[in-house]
Amino acid sequence: MMEETFRKYESGGLKWIVREGYRDLINIDFTDGSVLKNVDENNVRIRGFVEFKGERLFVKAFKERDRFSPLLTLKGLIFGHGAKREFDASRYLAGKGIDTPEVIAVGLGPFLRSRAVIIFRVLDNASRLDEVFRDLSDDPQGSGRERLIGPLSEITARLHAASFHHRDYHAGNLLIKGGGKKDKLYVIDLHRSSFPRGMRGKRALKNIAAVCHSLSPGLDDGDIRELLKRYEEARGENSLEIEGALKFIKERISKMEGVRLKSRTRRCFKNSSEFSVEKKGGRTVYLMRGVCVDKLMGTIGEFSEGGGIMLKEDRKARVALFKWDGVDVCVKGYETLSIKEKIWAAVGRSRGHVSWRSARGLAVRGFNTPLPLALVIVRRFFVPGKIYFVTESLRPARELDRFILNAFKESQNGKEGLLAGLAGVIGSLHRMGIYHRDLKGTNIGVKKEGGGYIFSLIDLDDVSFTSGVNVRRRARNLSQLYLSTPKVIGAKDRKSFFERYLDAAEGAAERERIKREVKKIVRGEELLFVSDKGDVIEDGEDLFSELFGDR
């Protein structure tokens, strides 16, 4: 039976369940967002705030589907609409005395059309837990973090004791209100939830790992231990083996981080907050939001006619420079695709696709690369024929080999800092499973900024993301750098670089194997790099002898 505080109505094609005193809400059309303030919109829903009789309410309006989706229909048949699930979950938690924003109403449209509205009372002076935690993470004493662990462990324990499984349990879905000793957490965004018979064992630990992952890297091992201890106290149990649970949670966090990075990387091929996709007249355009399509296609047209400042041309591609409102823009065009390349392009694996994905993947992992602006695929009779990859120019950065020649031609000042920074970047790439098949000096951009150096990867169609970079690949990259670096970087500098690389790559255990592989590759090879005047070849025998002790 329905509780007395709620009533059922029908209005505007929706079937409503409304808390008493709020019936007039059903006469408001929330679907286009025009009545809402601070609107946030995506492909699925519009959300924002509305003033109603002097009260501030939070509204989430789900859009009507414009086409039939068998998968979403099946999901709806099994689980019901997300708005109704969230409504039921909110009332369930309220009945258990667990803090969550008070649900006011839900309106559901015809099943196959997916239109719905759900409304909550706004929590005044509440903030997201992840934002508060981030502000406190700079505290060297960690007292701010400790203050939040208690409320977090308590609400997690209460959710689990109530057999409630929040399947999207992260710090962004927890609101904190109060201050000092009166901090209180509220759980939100409940549409992905279930009610298992018991929230214990691995299921409970996975849920705890999810919220810990959302607070990484600010949450250290000591914080997680304390969270687990307080969680057990709040549940009134003593069944956890803390160190074993900590190990499980850390492994789970590592897996979740891998999934998160892959998901964020793939967003460059979807309509999202940062990217958009446009398909029209035999072309598909993936572009960063804010980029004008007309300007982009005008530049592509100029490029196809030989316009722009030519930077590079070979059998694979042409690269040219253009100006956009005073900003240098680089266009790389793959205009002559072989049959094999057309097949790869058809399945999203062309050099252009890889470059676009790599630029995004490097950015979400914290590495520098020229800002990706667009990827354009031109088809004829549904077959990819030309591909264009557009980025901001690397300028004023310079390729590593040219930078070294110009910076250290007369003075060695700053060389140690440059090599330390480079070793840190290459080591971090390998530690995170990122491999560049052609890691020569010409494919690394460098610019000096303040007292340090900023490094960027170039030629991104040779980048891949793996579960780990093995010894052979590490040695190959180190050898490529070795053979493309001028002799102004001597043996002592190179030894120092190698040691710093091992520290950054966490590869000390493989030291001798990597060294043997590098020695095998570079033995008898000359150094080849590029200066402002063209290609330069230097004899490498003396350098090899000094480093490896034989010829």
Structural class label = alpha+beta
Which architecture of the largest domain does the CATH hierarchy give at level 2? Orthogonal Bundle
Oligomer: single chain
Please tell me the overall pLDDT: 90
CATH class of the largest domain: Mainly Alpha
Distance between the termini: 88 Å
CATH-derived topology of the largest domain: Transferase(Phosphotransferase), domain 1
Number of domains: 4
Going by CATH, the homologous superfamily of the largest domain would be: Transferase(Phosphotransferase) domain 1
Question: How many β-strands, per DSSP?
Answer: 26
**Unreliable stretches:** none
User: Main sheet?
Assistant: 7 strands, antiparallel
List the total number of helices: 16
- Physical arrangement of strands within the biggest beta sheet: 1-2-6-7-5-4-3
What is the rounded Rg? 29 Å
Q: Residue share in helices?
A: 25-40%
Shape: globular
Strand content: 25-35%
Protein name: Protein kinase domain-containing protein
GO molecular function: ATP binding; protein kinase activity
Pfam family, one: Kdo
InterPro entries: Kinase-like_dom_sf, Prot_kinase_dom
